[in-house]
Design brief:
The structure is a single chain. This protein is an alpha+beta fold and about 200 residues long. The chain is about 50% helix and about 15% strand. It has one domain (about 55-200). The longest helix has 21 residues, at about 110-130. The protein is globular. The structure holds zinc ion. Zinc ion binds near residues 123, 127, 142 and 145.
């Protein structure tokens, strides 16, 4: 438990001071207590606004680490920093100074519950793992991230119903770059049915 919290603290430290990103700094950080109230947030553009993000609450950090474990990702492959921010009920995967981060708006949890929150984080993890960052928005990318999330749910031992628990949100908030809810349900289901394919970001023919 404690180590995950420290990983989050370290994540923030790296974001705030990228020059300290080295193994020795990591070891030093493991022994350093950080007062979250005393560290500054990071700021990055989200659409036309600039929002502040802060290290994720422990439950969201655990969701990410549990997903990485279930997907058998190495610590390097899961070198992604979970953060929370007010995004108007959204989540995103992005890069800050070369560091991979996932930002999750806690407001979503009231709408989709614990399983839905984990699926949204799994979807954003999929964007990182499927190599979508830095590329133009593409509806195929969304379906690959959905299939990845479906696979993650299956590998976490969740039911297909659990895997689909964020779906009500899809129809309520369709994005310009996002496929139809039906297509997304199909992609999540395909990933859940064939987790090896979904984990590899493959969609059915
Ligand atoms: Zn997406």
């Amino acid at each position: 438990m404690g180590s995950s919290l420290l990983r989050v603290a370290y994540a923030f430290w790296v974001l705030a001071t990228p020059h300290l990103f080295s193994p020795s700094a990591a070891e030093a950080q493991e022994r350093t207590r950080i007062d979250f109230d005393a560290v500054p947030t990071i700021h990055f553009p989200a659409g036309s606004r600039v929002v502040s993000a802060y290290p994720a609450f422990e439950d969201y950090a655990h969701m990410l680490f549990d997903l990485c474990d279930a997907l058998k990702l190495s610590s390097k492959e899961c070198s992604i920093f979970p953060m929370n921010a007010k995004l108007g009920g959204n989540a995103l995967a992005t890069l800050v100074d070369g560091n991979r981060i996932i930002v999750y708006d806690r407001e979503l949890s009231g709408q989709v519950g614990y399983d839905g929150a984990e699926m949204i984080i799994a979807h954003e993890l999929g964007h990182h793992r499927c190599g979508h960052l830095g590329k133009a928005a593409d509806t195929t990318h969304e379906l690959q991230a959905d299939a990845f999330a479906g696979a993650a749910a299956r590998l976490r031992g969740k039911t297909l119903k659990d895997a689909l628990s964020a779906v009500p949100l899809f129809s309520k908030r369709p994005g310009r770059t996002h496929p139809s809810s039906a297509a997304r349900v199909a992609a999540i289901t395909a990933g859940w049915n064939n987790p090896e394919a979904g984990r590899a970001c493959r969609l059915p023919d």
